[in-house]
Amino acid sequence: MILIVMGVAGAGKTTVARLLAEELSWSFRDADEFHSASNIEKMSCAIALEDADRTPWLAAMRAAVETWLREDTNAVLTCSCLKAAFRQTLVVDPARVRFVYLKGSFDLIEARLRQRTHHFLQAQLLQSQFAILEEPQDAIIADVSDPPAVIVTKIRKALWI
Question: At the top level of CATH, which class does the domain 2-159 belong to?
């Protein structure tokens, strides 16, 4: 099974996904590892990515998902997946690829981003992320105001794992 932990920047995707992968003894990958240097440079300069910028990024993640499924590797992947079309790109096998949506208020997530100093994505880009967000209808939804351990427990209960 592949679990894709999605949401806007600052929602806690990496924290939750790492903890979940660790508890399940599954592989973990962060979507940031799949970005090109030019995408990272744009985001570092507070320039929102266009869909054309995201196409190779999504293709690289899809290839990883296909490999994991072919090799029967359980994995947790973080990915913003803000649009339904992006999620559809990654759902190689609907029976074995599931989404977890980390949902939170703009104010809470903006406060988190302003506290981060180690990440290339700037807080100024958060509004653009909320603007394009198409909330999933078929994901496990977790409230980001809960502590990460509580979120992971809720995810595991929802998946029966």
Answer: alpha beta
Using alpha carbons, select from 80, 88, 16 the residue that is nearest to residue 43.
80
CA-CA distance, 154 to 147, in Å (whole number)?
A: 11
Q: What is the pLDDT along the chain (161 residues), one digit of tens a residue?
A: 999 999 998 899 999 999 999 999 999 999 989 987 888 788 777 777 788 888 999 999 999 999 999 999 999 999 999 999 999 999 999 999 999 999 999 999 988 887 766 554 555 678 888 999 999 999 999 999 999 999 999 999 999 98
Phi and psi, residue 75, nearest 5°: -145, 155
Please tell me the distance from the alpha carbon of residue 4 to that of residue 128, in angstroms, as a whole number. 21
Sheet arrangement for strand 140-143: 27-30, 75-78, 2-6, 97-103, 140-143
Single pTM value for the model: 0.89
